[in-house]
Amino acid sequence: MNAPDKQKDKPVSDSGSDSKLPPNSKEPQVQDMQVQDICVLACAEAFRGDGSMLCNPIGNIPLLGGRLARATFEPDLICSDAVSLAVLGDYPIGQPLDPIVESYLPYRTMFDIVWSGKRHVMMGASQIDIYGNQNIAAIGDWKKPKAQLLGLRGAPGNLINHKTSYFVPNHSLNSFVEKVDIVSGPGYDKMKDLPESASKYFEIGTVVSNLGVFNFSKEGKMQVKSLHPNVSFADVQAATAFPLLLPDGITEEGIPTTPIPTEADMELLNNTLDPNGLRYM
Length: 281
Known about the structure:
Helix content: 10-25%
CATH class: Alpha Beta
Radius of gyration: 19 Å
Number of strands: 13
Distance between the termini: 21 Å
CATH topology: Glutaconate Coenzyme A-transferase
CATH superfamily: Glutaconate Coenzyme A-transferase
Shape: globular
Structural class: alpha/beta
CATH architecture: 3-Layer(aba) Sandwich
């Protein structure tokens, strides 16, 4: 199965963010873009409604999503330079900046923000399961792993203190697994066993992959929110090692299609936020 490659087959009418279009503009169609463009908008939508939260996406596509969200429909988001500054303005990724500094974000300040809950991080996940348990530490037995990855990093503290979302660029049986090898970021099943003091701020917001967008049911299990254009439920289920749920009242045929970027979104991405096309690399 190679569902993303089929996205040039059929246009869709859904468009993305609240960007203003020039007069007489023509909305782009699926064949005008790549799956990475759709993922950027899906990541941007993960930050909708956050207001003046610190938007802290990790990786090129999530970072572009955060900056696109602020440039279009969430102007109060606080965005960083991905190092140690909160910056104003729309800046390209992967280039030296001469930014307007909104605030300095040394480690001490960053941890204060984390502990206050005023942060929404979008992390990666080498493995993720039906409950949202995330693994970025190692593959295989932790005593003798087949592959050593990043380690636990800040995942446990993120999940306890504030909203966390995930971007998984390659949706497969190796990434959407029945059970993660090591829990870096705890999921809903793990958190329910903790006291309220540790779990009351816990929330997994959105999981974005190259096949679709997912969230969690009231029971804390992953469900399909939308599928990218020309991806079927059968496609995404075949690439998932656990049974995906559908929200109440939604059939396989009625699953929403992930919105595609508008013409204004694409202009922002191509000319301002990502002129070197780093999202495709």
